[in-house]
Amino acid sequence: MKKALTTTALLAALPLAMGSTLAQASECGKVTIADMNWSSASLIANVDRFILEHGFGCDASLVPGDTMPTGTSMIEKAEPDIAPEMWSNSLKEALDKGVEEGRLRYAGKSLSDGGEEGFWVPSYMVEKDPSLATIEGIKQNAKLFEHPEDPDMSAFYSCPAGWNCQISAGNLFRAMKLDEAGFDIIDPGSGAGLSGAIAKAYERKEPWFGYYWAPTSVLGKYDMVKVDFGSGVDKDAYVNCITNADCTDPVVTMYPPSLVQTVTTEGFAQRAPEAYDYLTKRAFTNNQMNGLLAWMEDNQADGEYAMEHFLLEYEDIWTAWVSEDVVNKVKDAL
After folding, report:
1. What residue ranges are annotated as transmembrane (predicted)?
2. Measured between alpha carbons, how far is 86 from 47 in angstroms, rounded to an integer?
């Protein structure tokens, strides 16, 4: 009888507990998160899904995404609810209009440093000669950077043909008159060819000079130094000329950071303000993401596996984004 009464009491309490859980979930409701088709975005999407589901009681799920179609769908159809890593410069006018019309919100920066581009050299070269951290030092020591096919020329590794960054790198090459210093542009043929050139040079401790960007697994694996052009950032020149294939008179400018934001629908932000607040705080530095991407590549990890690694091994980062109550719920789920 005692056992039966205990069971009855537990069953009676169950609807109350379930009701509390359902009430919490209903506040957030169903949440769709764009799982973009590159590693950093997939990692962030999986982190958001796990924290929103277990920390905030959301019915969270991932849907396939990419910059243009996801942004357009959020503006026109109010779905998905969240784009965790939106490189917004490529869709800025449409996104800004969506915000102005009350369809979207910018929650915050996914990458607090912004996307980073530049010309790079290996750190072991700068350790031997600090002048190689500047473009003038590079030009004065051009002979160090041996051309793979022409011994009379020096090698500058650019973006593969057809990539947007090929235009900006080529215009900056002209602006800095690197050809007059003896440099020739090397087309690596593909992204893998470009990263492979860095890896090969690093493993042999050979000179290397060229374009690259962050966050990437390559800059997580190999310690590279971004070359200072001595110009600062001229954003107008960059936007209006350097990125333009028809730019006739390029000027020297460092690459401005690319804005990388978390975008949500207005409906999600209004119905789940606490969950939205988490997204305003959730951000990675490029160094943090570079290291995570290197780990993903070394371990052939997808976004879900990398999410588990991140939440287990980097508590000091993610626990700063949420309350103690949410931290405990996420830890219990892990």
Report:
1. none
2. 16
Mind listing the domains of the chain with CATH numbers?
Answer: 25-114+259-333 (3.40.190.10), 116-242 (3.40.190.100)
Q: Determine the Cα–Cα distance for residues 198 and 212; give it in Å rounded to an integer.
A: 10
| CB-based contact 326:65 (threshold 8 Å) | no
Contacts by 249-257 with C-beta closer than 8 Å and gap 24+?
Answer: 250/171, 250/172, 250/174, 250/175, 251/175, 252/135, 252/172, 252/175, 252/176, 253/172, 253/175, 253/229, 254/118, 254/228, 254/229, 255/116, 255/117, 255/118, 255/168, 257/113, 257/114, 257/115, 257/116
The pTM for the full model equals 0.82
The pLDDT value recorded for residue 20 is: 39
Taking the chain (334 residues) in runs of 10, the rounded mean pLDDT of each run is: 41 42 61 94 98 98 93 95 90 92 96 95 98 98 96 96 90 97 96 95 97 95 97 94 93 95 97 97 97 96 97 98 98 96
C-alpha span between 326 and 322 (Å, rounded): 6
